[in-house]
Amino acid sequence: MNVPSPAALCCSPSSCVLVLTENQGAFTSPCYPQIYPNSQACRWTMQAPAGFIIQLSFLDFDLEEAPGCIYDRVLVNTGKTDVKFCGPTANGLTLNSTGNVMELSFNSDFSVQKRGFSVSFRHVAVALRNQKVTISHGNGQVTQVSGSVSIPTLSHLTLCFELERTGNKKKEWIFTYSDSSNNVALSLGSDKSGMKMIVDGVECPIDSILSSANFTSAMKPFCVLWTSSNGRVAAYFNGNYSSKSCSASSGHSVPGGGQFKLGGQHSFNGNIYNLRLWDYAMTLPQLNALSCDTVGNVIDWDNNHWSIQSSIAQTDTSLSCICFPHCIHLTAAAPTSGVSPPSNTPLTPSCDSPGLGCPGRNNTHLHGELSLQAYTHFDPPPRVDSAHRAKGSLHGVAARLKQKLL
C-alpha cells in the first residue's frame, strides 16, 4: 500500500485554478517537489496578447503511470489539440500553442502519488508585426535592416511607418539610410530649422506638409514619398495627401547597397511600428487602399528583414496589424494570476474587416507563416511491443486493484 510521506501530509496546497497573463513565468503541481496530494483538480490558463503564442516547457515530470493515463494525468490544450501525459513521458518536452491561449489541467485520483511536475512558460511573438520597437539612442542597441536585405538604387519611393512619441527633442531623426561611404542618402527628421527629408544628401524642407507636431503620444500611420523626375516630396496621414517641390533633388537617386537604421545622430524619442519601403511612389488611390499587411517590396516589417535587440521590442495589443490572421481577443478584462478564470469569457476575433487598421483576409503567404510558426511539438513516447504492453497493462491493473482493496 502506498503511504504518503509525513512531508506530503503536512503540505497545504495553494489554489491551483489560475489565469496567468505574465509574459513569462513558472508553476508546479501542488506540494512539488514533495508528492502531490490525492484528488486534485487543477487548471492553469495561460493568456498572451493577441498575435502571440504560449511556449510551455516541462522542466520536471513524474506522475503515476497507467495505460491511457486513466488515473493521474496532465492534459494540455494547445488550442486545437489536447495532449495527455502521465508517468515520465513529458519530461523535457516543449509545446507551442496554436493561438494566444493555452490551458494545462492536472488531475489525481485517491491513491498512488508521485513527485509531480514543474513547468515554465513564455509569450513568443509569432511575427515582428506583433511588436513595436523603441528608436534607440546607441548603447549597442541600434536597430537596422538585416544585411541579407538588398536595397536597390531608388529614383522614387514610398516609405510608411507608424510612430508614437514618448519625449520631445530639438533634433530628432526617425530613420537614416547611409550609402556605402557612410554619407546620409535618405533620412527623415527635424532640427531647429524644422522638419526635413534628406534625399541623396539634398535637404528638402517639408514643414508645410508634415511637422514634428504631427507625431504625438498616440501611435499613428504616416507615409512619405519622393519622385526623382520632378523632385516632388509628399506626405500622407490622417487620410490627407500633401506634396511640395524640392527641385534640388530632381534628377537625383538614392544609391543602393547602403545601411538602413532607425534613428540617427539625434534619435527620435518614441516607438516605431510596421516600417515598410517600396521602390515606387504610390498614387493617392493606392495610399487610400493600403492595408497594414501590404508587404514592402524593398523593406518589410518582418523578422527576416531586421536586426533588433529583444530588449527594445515591446508587445502592445493595440497595434494596428496585430490581429492577422489567427488571434483571440479577450473582450472581458483578463484576471491576474491567482484569480480563477471566468467560465463565460467571450472570445471574439479582434479584426472584423480589412482596412488600414486591419489586414485583408486573403493574404495566404502570411497565413502560412503564422501557421508554420505556431505549432505544437512533442516527441512521441518510445514504442512498446503489443505483448509487452498487454503484459504490463494486466500487471498494472492487478497491482492497482490490490492497492485500492488494501
From TrEMBL:
Disulfide bonds join C69-C86. Residues 16-124 form the CUB domain. Transmembrane segments: none annotated. This is Uncharacterized protein. Gene3D superfamilies: 2.60.120.200, Spermadhesin, CUB domain. Residues 128-321 form the Pentraxin (PTX) domain. Coiled coil: none annotated. It comes from Champsocephalus gunnari (Mackerel icefish). Keywords: Disulfide bond, Repeat. InterPro entries: ConA-like_dom_sf, CUB_dom, PTX_dom, Sperma_CUB_dom_sf.
